[in-house]
Write a structure and sequence with these properties.
By secondary structure, the protein is α/β, with parallel strands linked by helices. Helix content is 32%, strand content 24%. The protein has one domain: Vaccinia Virus protein VP39 (Rossmann fold), CATH 3.40.50.
Length: 199
Amino acid sequence: MNRPDWHIVEQWITPGSRVLDLGCGDGSLLAHLITRRRVTAVGLELTDAAVAACVERGLSVIQADLDQGVSDWFAPQSFDYVIVSQTIQAMRNPEILLEQMLRIAREGIVTFPNMGYWRNRWQLGVRGHMPVNEALPNPWYNTPNIHLCTLTDFEALCADLGIEILERAVVDQERRSSAWLRLWPNGFGEHAIYRLKKR
């Protein structure tokens, strides 16, 4: 099933371009982009089951650990876009991944759950426990998410790394935008979607 935020990612990608999806999972987003934007696509994924699902879909996929780096796999500017969807917060060194992805591609698209979302603030500040919800479904002791951040945190990191933010979209739990999100994106946005390039 297609996620509503895929429409935003799709609109940012030029038809016929070369796309790399880091942490591509079962390849659903890549398959969507191949169908809708006729991209040439490659995925990187670690887990056996997800790699097998990509192969079953007929996708080009490399089994690799993103925490080991991606620069060795691809020459500079091998792709038009690199996508890191709901993965950056699970990396040991997200700053290294950001720098490497923008060496091997002209632009990057990054999506992640926003820790500044009001329900997360409520669970942490009022109820006194780490957030558990649809975007962050695992309890603190077995979550893959080791570097959660807010929109403000991510944008500060981009500034430190000399990364230009070309576009930003912030959506709610239904992956939709609204007037509330435009008023206070860091509080009402559950998911963030960024389009980036190196300055």
